[in-house]
Amino acid sequence: MPTVKSKQTTEKLSHLNNLIEKLNAFSADNYWDLGKFLVERFIPAALKEGIFGDEALKTITSAPGFKFPYSMLKQCQQFYTYYPDVEKRLLPEIFYFDLATKVDDSAKRREYEKIAIDRKWTISDLRKKIHDDELARRMDEKTKYGFDLKEKNFWSFEAADPRFGKPNYKGRIPGQVVANLLFYYTNQGAYIVDPFAGSGTLGDIVDIVQIFKDRKYKLYDIEPSDERIVRNNILQTGIPEQTASVDYVFLDPPSEFFPQTSDSAFTASAAKADTMLKLKGVVRESARILKKCGRVSIIIEPTIVGLELIDFPGEVASLMKEFDLKQIGKVYMPRRSDSSKASRFGGEKSLTSEIREILTFEKL
Ligand SMILES: C[S@@+](CC[C@H](N)C(=O)[O-])C[C@H]1O[C@@H](n2cnc3c(N)ncnc32)[C@H](O)[C@@H]1O
């Protein structure tokens, strides 16, 4: 139990009282000496009492009257450990304190030290360089794959990546969404079909992002926006692909397929039935063209008509099941518009949807 353990630790530390008092007497800006005392005297003595370094540091900092916080002791310890010879080095001490506490990699520390000496850097120059390099490192990490990779199932993007899709195209999805879907749900060499290609966002991802260049795609739309897209009305002619020939289908259906929030409650059930009829055709066709273990993702959200909530994600999940498609993923994606405002209907308060869902299914 932690209380017993900390009581034992406190008892053991009481044998170190003399050293703790000496530590507490150090001046707060004497980082290197404090570090030296910690590394050479206090930590070995604590170890003899059976208390490991970090535990000893944490415990003494919570002792009444002890003036240094744990983070500072840790920094001093690190400073002395990395630069026990600081006096013999060419730069002022503060450079080495910053290097020891801000740069984990020893090769990188040596590199910064060399450049700082060669270029006669001030401490602000060094701090700026470390800060800029850290920002660049984080950016690289984020875009290692050539797009903003998400690791959790809430996909929110500041803005649509301008490389993908055509600006001002109604209903264009941020390309980062499609890139993440391809990352998680397609494999190398996959054959991908987008029956609602719109501004060609999916095609752009495959054409531009290096890791997807091995994918092959076919784009369809009722109103093609470029020469890569084949004209097709899915409601009339289905998806013109062979049965069991496709690895992944991406469905971003048009808003016209869904009831409008301005529709009256009276027409809600008719509007729902109309939407479900269209979606059934789309799902049936997707299931038909998918290979076994092929996947389909659909962007969908609930619609609130008057006071009635139509749970399209739930309806689509049931529909997919009918066609032997098992759900394997769900992602939430906020709308980037202020069109969703709480509204009043018949004197009652009601909400509109601000989160879209991306559901993914696998063919059994
Ligand atoms: C939401 S947009 C797709 C946007 C696309 N993902 C993008 O990022 O640009 C829906 C598309 O479906 C197309 N569409 C509407 N009705 C259609 C139909 N019956 N058959 C095929 N495409 C249709 C529209 O022309 C529109 O481009």
Structure description:
By secondary structure, the protein is of the alpha/beta class. It has helices at about 1-15, 15-25, 30-50, 55-60, 70-80, 95-100, 105-120, 125-140, 175-185, 200-210, 235, 265-290, 310-320; strands at about 190-195, 215-220, 230, 245-250, 290-300, 305, 310, 325-335, 345, 350, 355-364. The protein has a seven-stranded mixed sheet, sandwiched between helices. Strands 6-7 form a two-stranded antiparallel sheet. Strands 9-10 form a two-stranded antiparallel sheet. A hairpin with a 2-residue loop joins strand 9 and strand 10 (about 350). Mean pLDDT is about 90; it is low at about 1-5 and about 340-345. The site of S-adenosylmethionine (SAM) has 19 residues, from helix 11.
Write a brief caption for the model.
The chain is 45% helix and 17% strand. It is built from 13 helices and eleven strands. The strands form three sheets. It has a seven-stranded mixed β-sheet, with helices on both faces.
Give me some keywords for this one.
single chain; 364 residues; Rossmann fold; 2 domains; 17% strand; binds S-adenosylmethionine
Q: Approximately how much helix is present in the residues?
A: 40-55%
Low-confidence stretches: 1-5, 338-346
CATH topology of the largest domain: Rossmann fold
Q: Nearest-angstrom radius of gyration?
A: 31 Å
Shape: elongated
* Average pLDDT score: 88
Strand % is 15-25%
The major sheet is characterized as: 7 strands, mixed
- What structural class do helix, strand and pairing data support? alpha/beta
Strand neighbour order, sheet with most strands = 3-2-1-4-5-11-8
Q: Would you identify the CATH H-level superfamily of the largest domain? A: Vaccinia Virus protein VP39
Separate helix tally: 13
Under the CATH scheme, which architecture of the largest domain would be assigned?
A: 3-Layer(aba) Sandwich
Number of strands: 11
Q: Distance N terminus to C terminus?
A: 50 Å
CATH class of the largest domain: Alpha Beta
Bound molecules: S-adenosylmethionine
